[in-house]
UniProtKB/TrEMBL annotation:
Keywords for this protein: Membrane, Transmembrane, Transmembrane helix
A family per Pfam: EI24
Main location: membrane
Segments crossing the lipid bilayer: 20-43, 69-99, 126-153, 159-177, 198-230
Annotated localization: Membrane
Coiled-coil boundaries: none
Protein's UniProt name: CysZ protein
Membrane topology designation: Multi-pass membrane protein
Length: 238
């Protein structure tokens, strides 16, 4: 486990890793620039309506200037706060679309004897995603009462948090890298056989996602890390 994580971090400066990170950052910035422009025009339009209402109510003068200043300040503040909280999530989402390149880079460096990766059928990919989303929703609904109960018991709510997210993230990343070499039923059979190791690996990914700044590159590190875990388990299974 630690060796796999160490290998993933040591390869973090690989050109392929940097390309995925840079493209994710660029696409995220473009996305947010478009969102900023749209939000600015929307808030400006709303602010003009408010200023017009104040002018009708109080006329020109101190109150009109104050309201105009407050509207502009609130718009800038709201956009800044929302961007601060949403940017990592948007970047990670965009990065997730490029992670196959990371898996390929890891295989070229550490597993050069592997044959070309399997191309996953679209129907299989859709089915896998639908099942994952369904499992995520069902499990979160089932454990919600426990979360509410254990909120007063910090050690236990942390255990539940890492256990649940370890299972979900372990499953997600393990299937993402394993379907390059196995079909979906084989991937699930291997994951279930080594369920404990996969959940533990998912808990490590969960922990990385809780660290500021590190969470921006966690999908890249997690993909490389889980690929090493998968290859180790595949050899053990064989």
């Amino acid at each position: 486990m630690f060796q796999a994580l160490s290998r993933a971090f040591r390869q973090s400066f690989d050109p392929a890793f940097r390309r995925v990170f840079n493209r994710s950052m660029l696409f995220s910035l473009v996305t947010f620039i478009l969102l900023w422009l749209g939000a600015w025009f929307a808030l400006d339009w709303a602010g003009e309506g408010l200023v017009a209402w104040v002018r009708d109510w109080a006329g020109d003068g101190f109150w009109l200037g104050l309201i105009d200043w407050l509207v502009n300040a609130a718009a800038i503040g709201a956009i800044a706060v929302v961007s601060f909280f949403l940017f990592p999530a948007v970047m990670v989402t965009i990065m997730a679309l490029l992670l196959d390149e990371i898996a390929g880079a890891v295989e070229r460096r550490h597993y050069p004897d592997l044959p070309p990766a399997r191309s996953q059928p679209i129907a299989e990919a859709i089915l896998g995603n639908v099942i994952f989303v369904a499992v995520t929703l069902i499990l979160n609904l089932l454990v919600l009462p426990l979360y509410l109960i254990l909120i007063w018991l910090p050690p236990l709510n942390l255990v539940l948090f890492y256990l649940l997210n370890g299972y979900l993230l372990g499953r997600e990343y393990f299937e993402m890298v394993s379907v390059r070499r196995l079909d979906l039923p084989q991937s699930r059979q291997l994951r279930r056989r080594f369920r404990g190791r996969v959940i533990l690996a998912g808990a490590v990914v969960t922990f990385l996602l809780t660290i500021p700044l590190v969470n921006l590159v966690t999908p890249i590190i997690a993909t490389a890390f889980m690929l090493h875990i998968f290859e180790d388990l595949r050899r053990r299974g064989a």
